[in-house]
Amino acid sequence: MAMALSGAGCATVGHEAPSSPSPILGWCSVTSENTGPAKTILDVALHHLDDRPGAIAHVHTEGTLPHQGIRDQSMAAEKDWPIMRRAAQAWRINGDPRYLKQVDAYLAAWAGTYQPDFNPIDETNLDGLIDAYMLTADALSPSTRTMAQALLRKLGTGYIDRIQHARRPGPATTINNWQSHRVKLIALSAAALGDRAMLSSAFAIFKQQVADNIRPDGSVIDFGERDALHYVVYDLQPLVQATLAAKPYGIGGDWLNYRTSQGASLRLALDWLRPYAEGQRSHQEFVHTKVPFDLARREVGEPGYSGLWDAKTSSTLYWLAAKLDSGYLSVAQKLAPQPPDWVGVCR
């Protein structure tokens, strides 16, 4: 039994004050179990059906090397988030109530335990949790729905408040990939809540980030700072995810093609990277990075911090972009014949 998401549920939400119920318009509409990605989702979800949530109050991986601080504990706990999303997608695919029960339990555990730190690098993978809520909001137990809404609202409004009160000009993290991940978390939270006021705030911050981060030639400031295409992808993918989340609501119009007065746009940045992704150009990573931590990661042997950039690491970015514009489908397929299951199952 396949179920479409659009208009799947209602929630009383609001950024500054509660508003009238607004339908949740999800970016991921799951309607078929007869596709490769859907079968993969069902297989993986079944494999994890008996898992139990490992919610913790705080996660911290940003700026850490392996085995430092709570990095290992955080990475283990964060595995819950894609489990939640796949369980929610599996429920949308075939309606098996066991998956809904699992999502409800995981959301309740995390919403009742996690305390946001508002470090967007630590928290960017919460997109899995947010998507899980979006896909199941109308069917969750009332207590879980209330707790999950409170967590998402705290995330969205907390990031907005911190951005609005940040000094300008500020540190690099107010305009580099950190800000892109803030935009993503705000936009996904707003879209999952059906909060149009919050989504309007997300668009205003998105526009400022395009102006601050993307140059008129399409390159991003992270490339100049890190001398690495790794960080171009890490900068652009959250902006693409924010754009996907916002698209069903129509707020702000076409985020992909929004252009600044200087001509910068998210599309332009994707097109700047494309020759590298398609193999027409190559790049030695991190040779002239200005960030000492990049060198530390290279010294301990973390993959991807030296040598030629592996274009396949941009496959998820272009599969997501292809959902905004089919013109990116050819490069996505060249990088990976099939999309990641959690992307491919959505139409």
TrEMBL record:
Domain of life (superkingdom): Bacteria
Gene3D superfamilies to which the protein is assigned, alphabetical = Chondroitin AC/alginate lyase
Signal peptide start-end = none
Q: Name one Pfam family in it.
A: Alginate_lyase
The protein's GO terms of the molecular function aspect are: lyase activity
Swiss-Prot/TrEMBL keywords: Lyase, Signal
One GO CC annotation, please? periplasmic space
Every copy of the Alginate lyase domain together lies at 37-282
Q: What is this protein called?
A: Alginate lyase
Give the organism the record lists.
Answer: Dyella tabacisoli
